[in-house]
Specification:
The complex is a heterodimer of chains A (299) and B (609). Chain A has 299 residues and is of the alpha+beta class. In chain A, 40% of the residues lie in helices and 11% in strands. With 609 residues, chain B is an alpha/beta fold. Chain B is globular, with a radius of gyration of 23 Å. Classes of the chains: A alpha+beta (299), B alpha/beta (609).
């Protein structure tokens, strides 16, 4: 599923290249380089450099690039990486990239589980690469660690998936605070009960990594389903007492729509994979209850 | 070609605030960022946002604490503007829905932080930056501001007048990471650089991998002087294995530092007999390393930070995120054991020279946030002052770029702000920097905006093509690792002349090796190999500016400790270190620190905690 690549994407790429106006000479050179890139025997290379390491691990990484010969067909490359205590999946990828193949492509930035850019499919489960200790993966020294892009999202290249759809769903719930009225005086804050802050606290921790959406069977089958992250975002505002009743009503209208909360079949996969431990399924259920209550009062 | 009134480069806190401000003024504004805004490093800030909100506190006290914290290297007009405007910015964030931690009466909580005379740090758990970033991005979405995410700005479109003060910025050249398209972005009003930190010049840093000093390096090469680059803050509490930050909030709430003897080192060895763990960051960072150097470190590397006595309830209420970080990245349960910590590169106090309206000496080019030096942090930034800085000065840059009249600037910029003192002591030959490719157009009288853009787009296309076409050479990662290693070895908390010179040598070697750098990945699709290669050039330039500044400043002030110069030399050194690129033969010069505020002059005093 993570290997699906549409024809369209490949064509779009070719067009961009043509537009960029490469001369015939440049095209030839680039083509040569692309050929060379595909011919390198990475496995061989990877094996020779790590003889001295006491322990090594084997990582099998999904590779795909729509414009490089040999990588147009999805494949896996295997890298042997020296293991150290405390090593994370992201560390292993960085090692492979910096020592063996600088074209190995993945997103990462903060390395501390807050930027949300390195959600990956590791040994069959959505995880943040930076937060996943290799030692915590079962039998890591004897078996291969398999690293793939997030399933159910289109692959751009190697481990990078297209996040546009995820961002669109996040924006569909009108993810911004809208108080009915602000207190008098520029320096006067809105009061918020500690309990209310506690109630929304977990929902505000979302880092938009997309792991939940990728793990959700419903989202996989229904492209329009808002998905756990977006519904959680709606929860964050709907439950914030500083917004008024009218706004809450509008928010419930959004999440009650055909592809909203009622699609959730409480499989809990989102909650299981959330790297920030947000009780996503619970939040979705609570919004279902809210919308039932909401509708009842009009009867 | 893309066209907007105002372009904001960078989608972190300063960039988002600037964009919102420019939008408020009616400008058509767009954000261009190499990440997506919610991936920005502002999200990693933990501790809080300082603002004088309560009875018993005042902006004047906040300004004084900031000036003292800066070790009297901050400029009073900037610091006063900052302290006056911080409260309304914080309350505005609250009005935008930011989930601050709350007191029993429902108002936002404040807690003590290092170097503050009042507990004026507002916070949202130990993940304040995350909430600030997301709250502001929500407001950007609400306003429908255009965001070009995963577009890497690699060059500024600046005219080629000889004098940088005559130059104009008409836009930027950016590379679409997803497709490889190189495009010009024209800005009729102004370009605001909000590209954040440069921590990747060091190998033990709290900074994200994306923090490669792109803004400072690009603008420096285009003619904007960099200011006080030697002033690098090393945070006292980072996890030894990764550099992950453990918030100052831990010490703010009462966390204690112990050495391997179980001694409370801050008091036991007299590093800060009054404030103890809450002395300012430079003091605590040196204390910890002194313990390690004198053999009282744990595993010869770190000390312990203990918060167990605070109790589970308080820790979960205010520092929960710290428990997760310690567990996930060091395998330590903060409720049961002390956490290992050591100093790590954290923040650049220096940066692009700007006035208090955020403008550089180049017309139409602004900078805000960590990439800028306004200067309010001077030689040492107080914890909790970075987030309000990016709010206050991000907003001002946005307003000004969108044409709001902010009055005459009191802080001078550019070569004409040079110190009148002709007798400038330059202990190093700044020729250490070889000119590489030029970021300013150089074929004469290029002033028409579209021509300037076209010229720079062509230049950038050539650079990218030559990097991609080359078949073999040096991998940028090797060069980058060498730079990071020498900076951490030689330009760290403790600095010695011989080490600084060694670092300059190593950086020169890195620059030479960079001439042979090549990009192995031939693809135009999401080519991170190419992006990292371009970033590495920026890292070399900022690393060199840091090192040159450190060698030039022969005194001990704030975060800048020099083995040979163990005192603060107020007579000679209450001045900013300036470095101007000058076609690759940098001019080192100075400009006076402004100690005169609106109603008072800040008299330098001995800084004791």
């Amino acid at each position: 599923m993570s290997t699906e690549v549409t024809e369209k994407e490949t064509e779009a790429q070719t067009e961009t290249e043509a537009e960029s106006g490469e001369s015939a000479h440049q095209s030839r050179r680039m083509e040569q380089k692309r050929q060379q890139a595909s011919q390198r025997d990475l496995e061989e290379e990877a094996r020779t450099e790590i003889d001295e390491a006491e322990q090594t691990i084997e990582v099998k990484v999904f590779r795909f690039d729509p414009e490089v010969a040999g990588k147009e067909e999805p494949r896996f490359d295997t890298f042997h990486v020296p293991f150290f205590k405390g090593m994370t999946v992201l560390d292993a990828l960085i090692y492979a990239r910096d020592h063996y193949d600088s074209s190995l492509t993945f997103r990462h930035s903060c390395r501390q589980a807050i930027c949300g850019s390195d959600a990956l499919f590791v040994n069959g489960r959505q995880r943040l690469g930076c937060k996943t200790q290799i030692a915590d993966l079962e039998d890591h020294l004897n078996s291969t660690i398999r690293i793939e892009p997030l399933p159910h999202q289109e692959v751009v290249k190697d481990l990078v998936v297209d996040m546009e759809h995820f961002y669109d769903q996040m924006e569909a719930v009108e993810p911004f605070f809208d108080a009915d009225e602000l207190p008098d005086g520029d320096l006067e804050e809105q009061r918020q009960d500690r309990e209310n802050r506690e109630k929304i606290k977990m929902s505000t921790r979302c880092i938009w990594c997309g792991a939940c959406m990728s793990s959700c069977n419903i989202a996989a089958g229904d492209n329009e389903y808002l998905g756990p992250a977006a519904i959680n975002k709606a929860y964050r505002f709907a439950m914030d007492e500083r917004e008024g009743e009218d706004r809450k009503q509008q928010r419930l209208n959004i999440i009650e729509q055909e592809h909203g909360v009622w699609r959730c079949q409480t499989q809990f996969s989102c909650t299981e994979v959330c790297p920030k431990d947000i009780p996503l399924t619970e939040h979705i259920q609570e919004l279902k209850r809210e919308s039932v209550k909401n509708n009842l009062k009009f009867w | 070609m893309y066209e907007h009134d105002v372009l904001v480069i960078g989608g972190g806190g300063a960039g988002l605030r600037a964009a919102i401000a420019a939008h408020e003024e009616g400008a058509d504004v767009a954000i261009v960022t190499k990440l997506h805004p919610v991936r920005s490093h502002t999200g990693a800030a933990e501790g809080g946002i300082n603002a004088a909100l309560r009875d018993g506190d005042s902006w004047e006290d906040h300004a004084y604490d900031t000036m003292k914290g800066s070790d009297f290297l901050g400029d009073a007009p900037a610091i006063e503007t900052f302290a006056k405007n911080a409260p309304e910015e914080v309350i505005q964030l609250e009005h935008w829905g930011m989930p601050f931690s709350r007191e029993d009466d429902g108002r936002v909580s404040q807690r003590p932080f290092g170097g503050l005379s009042f507990p004026r740090t507002t916070y949202a758990g130990a993940e304040t930056g995350h909430h600030l970033l997301h709250t502001m991005y929500e407001q950007v979405v609400k306003r429908g501001i255009t965001v070009y995410d995963e577009w890497y700005v690699s060059r500024l479109a600046v005219t080629d007048h000889d004098d940088p003060e005559d130059r104009e910025c008409h836009g930027v050249v950016a590379y679409d990471i997803k497709t490889g398209e190189i495009a010009g972005f024209q800005a009729s009003g102004g370009v605001i650089l909000a590209t954040g930190g440069l921590g990747q010049a060091f190998d033990h840093t709290t900074n994200a991998v994306a923090n490669t000093g792109d803004g400072p390096a690009m603008a420096y090469r285009a003619g904007v002087p960099v200011e006080d680059m030697e002033m690098i803050q090393f945070h006292p509490t980072t996890l030894p294995s990764t550099g992950v930050l453990i918030s100052e909030g831990v010490r703010g709430e009462g966390g204690i530092l112990y050495n391997d003897q179980g001694e409370r080192l801050m008091f036991e060895y007299g590093y800060a007999n009054n404030e103890g763990e809450l002395a300012s960051r430079d003091v605590v960072a040196r204390a910890e390393l002194t313990e390690v150097n004198e053999g009282r470190g744990i595993e010869d590397e770190y000390v312990h930070l203990d918060m167990r006595h605070l109790g589970e309830e308080r820790i979960l209420d205010r520092l929960e995120n710290i428990l997760h970080l310690a567990e996930d990245f060091e395998g330590v349960d903060g409720l049961e054991e002390p956490m290992p910590v050591k100093p790590g590169q954290h923040y650049a106090m220096g940066g692009l020279e700007v006035d208090e309206h955020g403008e550089t000496c180049i017309d139409g080019l602004y900078a805000a946030g960590e990439c800028a030096c306004v200067s309010m942090h001077g030689a040492n930034r107080l914890g909790g002052n970075a987030l309000p800085e990016l709010l206050v000065f991000g907003a001002r840059a946005g307003w000004h770029a969108a044409d709001r009249d902010l009055g005459e600037a009191q802080i001078g910029t550019g070569p004409s702000a040079k110190s009148e003192d002709e007798d400038v002591d330059t202990p190093v030959s700044p020729g250490a920097i070889d000119a590489g490719d030029e970021d300013v157009a150089a074929d004469g009288a290029l002033v028409e905006p579209t021509e300037v853009l076209d010229h720079h787009v062509t230049a950038e296309e050539q650079r990218v093509e030559s990097l991609l076409e080359k078949d073999e050479g040096v991998n940028h990662a090797e060069v980058r690792a060498d730079v990071q290693e020498t900076m951490t070895q030689n330009v760290n908390v403790f600095r010695e002349e011989s080490n600084l010179k060694e670092a300059l040598e190593d950086l020169r070697v890195a620059r030479e090796r960079y001439q042979d750098v090549y990009v192995r990945d031939p693809s135009r699709t999401f080519n991170t190999d190419l992006i990292h290669t371009i970033e590495t050039r920026n890292i070399i330039d900022v690393a060199e500016a840091i090192t040159l500044g450190a060698l030039a400043r022969e005194e001990f002030r704030g975060a800048h400790w020099r083995a040979e110069h163990q005192e603060r030399k107020d007579d000679e050194w209450i001045k900013h270190t300036m470095l101007a690129w000058n076609d690759g033969n940098p001019d080192l010069y100075y400009k006076p620190v402004i100690l005169e505020g609106e109603d008072k002059t800040y008299e330098p005093k001995e800084r004791s905690y």
